[in-house]
């Protein structure tokens, strides 16, 4: 029998390495699921976008509450935060803005899938990191590196090219990027546990979703098609799961590493648009996306170089 005599340093290294691998898995699964969600919403094309959104919020909130029930520490933190509403008013304001931004983002993406704007949705997901950086510079007054500025200019050129090709502003792409950017920006100011924050986020929009379903879509809970009903219910679970996986991944790996994972979702969406949804990809589309991909390469290189020199 072989005995392993590991030092405390070696043991810590093994634990750290194991946690990093777990972080990779959580983050990869989150972005992978986000990428393939387009197929799920497409399966619900008989249901209106607003109705899907309402269900997504409703069942997502119920699922989060069910998780909270089995985690006493999270539950205590949740009620403590509610009690401190007056002293933590700014926190609730940021959470409210985050809940509105993510709800608008979900609605826009579902609408894009239903009405065949999947390529434009992919474009919006690709330019999200650049928009986030622009918001950071304008609002948080973050310092910007030369390489990042170059990547912004290249991305804007890509958007202008596709705007010229469409003959109109690609509002789906811009809306997705801006709402994602606002959501990410507000999350920087939210100082609370991920699960607790998610519970409050969904709680804030839950009443609107419930009112919509009860008074406008009155047959929604027990419709004639049980298949659709089950898809709507599980849509809430599929909304919460990647957010929880992402939060777990964020605990274990660096933001720089997560930055590379974030391109999984738009790439999957882009490929789905070509091979599954059969969207027409013109030469101008390819040129525009090439500019976006180049801007992301410059952006990633700039961020990595900035971290190694700091």
TrEMBL record:
InterPro entries per record: EamA_dom (IPR000620), EmrE-like (IPR037185), RarD (IPR004626)
Transmembrane segments: 21-41, 53-71, 92-117, 123-140, 147-163, 169-186, 195-216, 228-246, 253-277, 283-301
Record keywords, A-Z: Cell membrane, Membrane, Transmembrane, Transmembrane helix, Transport
Subcellular location field: Cell membrane
Location, primary (coarse class): membrane
Topology class, membrane: Multi-pass membrane protein
Domain EamA: 22-163, 172-300
One Gene Ontology cellular component annotation held by this UniProt entry: plasma membrane
Similarity annotation: Belongs to the EamA transporter family.
Name of the molecule in the record: EamA family transporter RarD
Species whose genome carries this gene: Cytobacillus depressus
UniProt lineage: Bacteria, Bacillati, Bacillota, Bacilli, Bacillales
